[in-house]
Amino acid sequence: MGLDWKVGFEIELVAPKGRSRLDLARRVAARTGGTIRSIFHAQAELTSIAGKPAFQNLTPGFEVVGQDGEVVARFVDDLTLLDGFDLRAPSLPGWYRIVTDDSRLVSLIEAGCDPDAGMAAVLEPLAAMFGTVPELHPSGMVKVADRKGSSVAIAAELSGERERGCEIVTAPIAAGHAAILAGLIDDAVAEGLSVPLEAALHIHYDATPLLAARTIARLVTALENHGESLKYIVGTNPNCRRLGAWPDDLIDRVADEDFLAMDWPDARRALQQLALTKFCDFNLFNISQAVASKHTFEVRILPVSLDVGEIMAQAELFAAILEWAMAPDEDDQAGDFATFIGNLPLSPAAMARWGGITGSRGAGHAARERNQIRGVGK
């Protein structure tokens, strides 16, 4: 059947020592006849500090804009990639990060500050909003505080080879997925990029066709029952970070007849009341919050491959699961994992591939694994 869904791909790679994600952006721009634009890339850095669960980081990123004015791809860091980086390496000239403890300030910085500005000047517009000026510390850091002296944001050199982290983030692709991916991956290989130890492939599926309570309920129930078996057949990277199960109350909520009877606005509000997060195997957060810039269902369990055919096979498998979830309501949740795969609208070739790997991993086995993860039935 192929892939007939608008999707975006996030492919985590690492540049060789002495190279950076900017080098890959330059190669892609040269191939496509596009131009490079500097951007801020926002990431949350989880902490163990009481009262501050995360620091918000803005690091240098680059996007290639095609001749038609549309973004081809972005090239950004991923803080979860750590293996093989020299943490003592000094910053490259002009590379810095901005840190704050409030995601709302991230939005202000993105809207008002220039990612092409040098570290000494980049926070001047932010300081002006608070009626102050940036303070240059002897350490080289640049700090913005409010009029009461409370810290607002800090800019500091980006050390530790953080320029080597290179996540390729494609624009949403509606057609010609394989050809677009092939061009980007060929460029990455030519630049010497490789798959890091902690790497993951994230695929974002346009959520527009999924906005119905029964569709979400079927999807959640199926992935809860068969998620561990799906991780087995796709070969989830055991070193990948920020995966995990959904909260138990999501499973209970979608099984409730009241939820199934809701129209979509009410169902979305019901999902918003749950403690959903993007840092899990399957990300429903963007759907529940109606994130305008990324209104997607995200699959986060996939391993990175430099083989376009492998990436496309994985994308088609989960597109088939989404199509199955949208089908007329049928009592087909029962049965083992092989039965579930057999019910998916896959091409004969894809069915032979994925059906041949399922083996004896049934729904009961997967459920037992889920219970072990959740600490149930010990």
The poorly predicted ranges are 360-378
Radius of gyration: 22 Å
Beta-strand percent range: 15-25%
Question: Which bin fits the share of residues in helices?
Answer: 25-40%
Shape: globular
Quaternary state of this entry equals: single chain
Number of extended strands: 12
Tally of discrete structural domains: 2
Structural class: alpha+beta
Number of helical elements: 13
Separation of the first and last Cα atoms: 43 Å
Q: Mind summarizing the main beta sheet?
A: 12 strands, antiparallel
Briefly say what this structure is.
The protein is an alpha+beta fold and 378 residues long. It contains 13 helices and twelve strands. The chain has helices at 21-32, 103-112, 124-129, 177-190, 213-234, 248-254, 257-260, 264-272, 285-288, 308-326, 337-342, 348-357, 363-374, and strands at residues 7-14, 35-49, 52-65, 71-76, 96-100, 135-136, 142-145, 151-157, 165-170, 201-206, 282-283, 296-302.
Write a structural description:
With 378 residues, the chain is of the alpha+beta class. The chain folds into two domains: 160 residues, no CATH class; 168 residues, no CATH class. 36% of the residues lie in helices and 22% in strands. The chain is built from 13 helices and twelve strands. Strands 1, 2, 3, 4, 5, 6, 7, 8, 9, 10, 11 and 12 form a twelve-stranded antiparallel sheet that branches. A hairpin with a 2-residue loop joins β2 and β3. α5 packs antiparallel against α10 and α5 crosses α13. The radius of gyration is 22 Å and the shape is globular. The two termini are 43 Å apart. The relative contact order is 0.14.
